[in-house]
Amino acid sequence: MASPIEQFQIKPIIPAIGFTNSSLFMVGAAALIVGGLMFASRKRAIVPGRSQSVAEMLHEFVAGTLKDATGADGMKFFPLVFSLFMFVLTANLLGMIPGFFTVTSHVIVTFALALLVIGTVVVYGFIKHGTHFLGLFSPPGVPGWLLPFIIVIEVISFLSRPISLSLRLFANMLAGHIALKVFAGFVVALLGAGGAIAFLAPLPLLMAVALMAFEFFVAVLQAYVFTVLTCIYLNDALHPGH
Amino acid sequence: MDPVAFKYLGAGLACIGMGLAAMGVGNIFGNFLSGALRNPSAADGQFARAFIGAALAEGLGIFCLVVALVLLFT
Q1: Given this model, what pLDDT does residue A241 score?
Q2: B59 and A167: CB-CB below 8 Å?
Q3: Of A171, A174, A225, which is closest to B55 when you measure between CB atoms?
């Protein structure tokens, strides 16, 4: 029986330019987003049709999340946040189709996305606030003797942000897909055992169906969590100093 | 015992942390639900905050899972 982590194997498709199945699904996700949104907004009707309503709901949802976390002046980051949300959501959902490759189940992909977010926060924070941005590391009202410890803790917590942001998304997708494969493997193993044991095979199959539904929920939830945390980190760049 | 056995023992021990993270996430949603039942009108506004807390608590459990996976598959 195939190993449960075999589904994450990267296979080159065009070795000359390093184009792999991961690249293929990234391009596919991007094409799906651009194509879908252009299709949805082709009429620009005042009274939206079905596809335009979906696009508007996605837009309003991300815009509302961003505005809640950062206020009105955070809306200049809307293109970044919306692109991140749509890419993570589409990549997660594409991976749920059996046989398809899950782009976000590789830590290098999610870490690149997280570095993009934290890089934006650091660069924008220093451009907008200069050295005042470092006030992020010293909360007001802390007694002087405690300040060195607090600054060390705050710096460590800031540096661990890209790691936790990327690991959360990656490990959720990885663990979910491994669990699905393990339960599917139980079905095969029970059927292969033959005799009376084979009648137990539908039980892990039911579990796999339930897990599949749960994985769809996780795919959407993790895209949302990634977006919300991005908004919160961007809020630090816009309004440092707690 | 040979080192491979210790590797699998370490992976199993790392999974204890996931159980602890489960307690944290359950605590957050349990308290959110009990608060929401007392004041349902205020619940919708705090929904996103509950999920952020759950995501942060879950992230630490995920670190344990990554430690276990690294031990198992490298």
Answers
A1: 64
A2: yes
A3: A225
SS3 category, A20? strand
The domain ranges of chain B are 3-73
**Model-level pTM?**
0.86
Long-range contacts formed by A144-150: CB under 8 A, 24+ apart: none
**Chain B: closest CA distance from residue A96 (Å):** 20
- In this prediction, the answer to ipTM > 0.95 reads no
Would you state the pLDDT for residue A2? 66
The one-letter amino acid at A162: P
Among candidates B48, B62, B73 on the partner chain, residue whose Cβ is nearest the Cβ of A167 = B62
Q: Domains in chain A: how many in total?
A: 1
Residue with tokens 């939206």: A48
pLDDT tens, position by position, A176-195? 898 888 888 888 888 888 78
Q: Which CATH architecture describes the domain B3-73?
A: Up-down Bundle (1.20)
CB contact under 8 Å between B66 and A164, yes or no, is no
Whether the CA torsion B21, B22, B25, B28 is positive or negative: it is negative
CB contact under 8 A, A172 and B55: no
User: To 10 degrees, the CA torsion angle through B46, B49, B50, B56?
Assistant: -170
The reply to whether A4 falls in a domain is no
